Amino acid sequence: MRLEGITKLFGAFRAVDSLSLDILRGEVFALLGPSGCGKSTTLRQIAGLDQPDSGRITLGGRILFCAEAGTFLAPQKRNMGMVFQSHAIWPHLSVFENIAYPLRLRSLPSVEVARAVRDVIAQVGLGGMEDRPATTLSGGQQQRVALARALV
What we know:
Mean pLDDT: 93
Structural class: alpha+beta
Number of strands: 5
Distance between the termini: 20 Å
Radius of gyration: 17 Å
Low-confidence stretches: none
CATH class of the largest domain: Alpha Beta
Order of helices and strands: EEHEEEHHH
Shape: globular
Strand content: 15-25%
């Protein structure tokens, strides 16, 4: 992934100021900094939830955003997941259904959904909790549901 000169303004406030960086395939990358420095805004721009005011974002040679060309690929076409600090767990769904949600949006066959959800549940250590209401889990367990949903 490559970010080139990404800038995001909220009125006169410059939340992200001409940020450029490269993240290599398979690389573990972290954005660290104090509250209000633009970490979440940067991630939201990569995911397509916020549109930068200037710059360019590419992934594997595919243009996700380019201010100069007027290109903006919609979030649902980026094939990305994002784990929010607030978990964003749907209270009316079970652990299984919370995790399966993005796969069902893509109309994957039920057998494929079940296999993928079982695999990721094992990865995040939530085995045996598939049928529980997500809101009955601890905060850490809810965070793992959100992580599993992004991974799946």
